[in-house]
Structure of 6-phosphogluconolactonase:
Amino acid sequence: MNLIEYPDREAMFMGLADRLSSELGETLRMEEGASLCVPGGTTPGPVFDLLSASRLDWDRVTVFLNDERWVPESSERSNAGLLRRRLLVERAAAARYLPLFAADRAPEEAIPDLAAAIEPHLPISVLLLGMGADRHIASLFPGADRLAEALAPDAPVLVPMRVEAAGEPRVTLSARVLAGAMRIHILITGDEKRAALDSARALSPEEAPVRAVLANATVHWAA
Ligand SMILES: O=C(O)[C@H](O)[C@@H](O)[C@H](O)[C@H](O)COP(=O)(O)O
């Protein structure tokens, strides 16, 4: 794991947006297309604001979420709603977006179609993750009903996930897909998450799902 400590959050958001943009640019110089996989939640909004304005061939970039809350885009809990407002705007409006939600269907029913759309864009070129103070990434929550399946080496692309701490049902990329990304970044703020991350290495992946990606990740932290 590589840890970058920034003097403040603003410097972190700018440094991280630059880094994601240049890694996408590198990928696009070598390949026909690039995939960018991002978290929802409350932390990454300012990174999205900056990244959406960057000069890239966005029409060759495919964007999808790490995980989605099973609510329509109009809900303020929807991660897709966040992306529509803050990432898929300005220059980045030209990117292709692949949803992890389907209205009127249960997660289990929709997953085969959603996963089939993601599969051609793997491995992920550039992965950004958030992390909770309970050490979850995506919707790989400690104690969740299908965590063992989602952590397995032969896990499917997408796994439905339910746990009380998450609120609504979730759909999440599996640990195999996340850990297979070409470049992995984790964005965290505050002392509580920093302490949770520091202690993760002594725990099992079931207790600390972030461990599934830690070996090859760059962690970006500011107080
Ligand atoms: O849908 C989600 O909730 C996320 O993708 C999730 O994995 C998130 O990244 C962490 O919960 C951190 O969230 P915060 O940034 O809000 O602390």
Observations:
- Residues 35 and 120 are 10 Å apart (CA to CA).
- The chain has one domain: 2-208.
- The mean pLDDT is 98.
- The longest helix spans residues 9-30.
